[in-house]
Amino acid sequence: MSNAVVETHEEGTMIERATSGPQKMMQFLRDTRQEMDKVHTPTRGEVQSTTIVVIVTVFLFAAYFEAVDLIFGKAIDQLFVYLTKH
Fold this sequence. Notes:
Elements lengths: L1 H36 L6 H42 L1
């Protein structure tokens, strides 16, 4: 008798899952719509200013890494010269 109860419960659960699909999809679409209403599209000025910041930052990092590369390169060259003479 317990098997019949389990099978009925499982069938009921399967039916509930099958019929809840469209409801879940509609809720998902509603939630998506609400979140999309919160999205802020940047203005042309905001895009230009952030682009300038990114470009300047890239050049600063490039200059920094170039300086570090030169310093370490010269130090390693000096180390090799020192080690080959001795």
